[in-house]
Specification:
Blueprint lengths: L1 E2 L2 E8 L5 E7 L2 H6 E8 L4 E9 L13 E9 L4 E5 L4 E4 L5 E5 L4 E6 L3 E5 L4 E5 L8 E5 L4 E4 L6 E7 L4 E3 L3 E3 L7 E6 L6 E6 L4 E4 L1
Parallel strand pairs: 1-7, 2-6, 2-8, 7-9, 8-10, 9-11, 10-12, 11-13, 12-14, 13-19, 14-20, 15-19, 16-20
Antiparallel strand pairs: 3-6, 4-5, 15-18, 17-18
C-alpha cells in the first residue's frame, strides 16, 4: 500500500477476503486525474493499493497531485503487510505476519500484532503492542526524531539493541545490560535473553519498553 495523506486502518479478521473501503477528498478536477488504483499480482496472492495514481495523460501537469484518502482495509489475520505513507496516520490491529512500514511524519500504531516488524519513520511516533515475541518475531524500528514505544507480554524474552545520538532508552521491563555499553549505544537482555532481536535506532527520538 502507498498513500500520502488521509488515514490508513488495517484490521485482521477471520475471513478469507480482503475488503477495502475508501473515502477520497479533493476538488473534482483532481479526483478525475488522480485515481485510486487497486489490483492484484502473483495470481491474486498480492493486493496492491495505490492511493494517488496519476493518469498517463496528465504526466505533464505540475500542480497539486494529492488526493486525501481514508482507507479502511480488512485482511485475513495471517497477512504480510508492506505500507508506505507520508503524513497519513496508520493503525494496524490483530494482524499475524511480517510488517514492513515506512512513513515520513505519520503516527503508526500497531496493536495485538504478531510477527516480525520493520518500521521506519522520520518524525512520526511509533507505538507497537506485540502479542508475543516468539520465534523470529524480531522488531527493527528506526526514526530520526520520532519516539518509539514498545509494549510486550510479561514473559517476553529477547535481545535489545539501542543506538541513538541524543535519545534515551527507558524500560519498565527488567533489562540486563551487556558490557561496554553507553547511554548512546547499548545491548541488553530482556527476560534473560534467548528470544528475537529488538533493534532501535534513532537520532533524537526516545525509546520506551513497557508491559
Amino acid at each position: 500500500m502507498n498513500s500520502f495523506s488521509g488515514r490508513v486502518t488495517i484490521t485482521g479478521t477471520d475471513a478469507s477476503d480482503v475488503i477495502i473501503e475508501a473515502v477520497r477528498r479533493a476538488p473534482r478536477t483532481r479526483l478525475d486525474r488522480i485515481k485510486l488504483d487497486i489490483h492484484t499480482e502473483s495470481s491474486g496472492r498480492v493486493v496492491v493499493i495505490e492511493a494517488n495514481r496519476r493518469l498517463h495523460s496528465f504526466w505533464e501537469f505540475t500542480g497539486n497531485n494529492v488526493v486525501e484518502t481514508d482507507l479502511d482495509v480488512k485482511v485475513p489475520r495471517r497477512t504480510n503487510l508492506d505500507v508506505s505513507v507520508f503524513s497519513a496516520p496508520v493503525t494496524i490491529e490483530s494482524v499475524e505476519g511480517s510488517q514492513k512500514l515506512n512513513s515520513f511524519s505519520a503516527r503508526m500504531t500497531l496493536s495485538d500484532v504478531s510477527g516480525p516488524v520493520r518500521a521506519h519513520s522520520f518524525s512520526g511516533p511509533i507505538l507497537i503492542r506485540a502479542r508475543n515475541l516468539d520465534g523470529d518475531h524480531s522488531i527493527d524500528v528506526q526514526t530520526f526524531s520520532g519516539s518509539i514505544e514498545l509494549h510486550v507480554p510479561e514473559s517476553a524474552r529477547g535481545t535489545v539493541r539501542f543506538n541513538s545520538f541524543s535519545g534515551r532508552l527507558e524500560s519498565e521491563m527488567p533489562l540486563t545490560l551487556g558490557a561496554g555499553g553507553t547511554r548512546r549505544s547499548l545491548r541488553a537482555e530482556l527476560g534473560g535473553g534467548g528470544g528475537p532481536v529488538l533493534n532501535f535506532k534513532t537520532f533524537s527520538g526516545s525509546v520506551r519498553i513497557d508491559r
